[in-house]
Amino acid sequence: MKMRMFTFKLDPVAGTFDDGPLTAFFAAHDALDATEHWFVHDGVPTLTMVVRYRDVPAASASRHAPERTAEPVMEMEPEHRAVFDALRKWRNERAKRDGRPPYVLFTNSQIASIARSRPDTRAALEAVPGVGEARIRDYADDLLALLRTARDAGG
């Protein structure tokens, strides 16, 4: 197990942190745990994250690379949008309960991929880009139950 630290400063115009470096890191590594520390440096809100991880074998790194688009729902079919919204709501509530940023659980692109593919098994869920062993272990049961509910409701 290895550790890496990331530091992000708040973009005052966008009101968000640029998670690009973290998303790129997760494309080649399997996150096991993340802790965060918020502080203000020179008047700028700053987030430092320490990620415990293991390397993803090169052969499967591209399979686990998250899709990166400006807005993953822009090209989404209406029938997938309801599932995306439900998954995103679950992700945000779970992240708040766990005290973690939502994108550490799943990025919007990963949620969009799950909404489009609607996996119904752990293996199918793990085939979604960016969903590795740690996410399967921690979230598969919740995600598969939510997807089953959406399927049963005709969504």
With helices defined by DSSP (H or I, 4 residues minimum), what is the helix count? 7
Whole-number mean pLDDT: 81
How far apart lie the N and C ends? 40 Å
Q: What is the correct CATH architecture?
A: Orthogonal Bundle
- CATH class term: Mainly Alpha
The unreliable regions are: 59-71
CATH superfamily: HRDC domain
Rough shape? Answer: globular
Provide an overview of this structure.
With 155 residues, the protein is an alpha+beta fold. The chain has a single domain (2-152), classed as DNA polymerase, domain 1. Helices cover 47% and strands 21% of the residues. It has a three-stranded antiparallel β-sheet.
Which structural traits does this protein have?
single chain; 155 residues; alpha+beta; DNA polymerase, domain 1; three-stranded antiparallel β-sheet; 3 strands; 47% helix
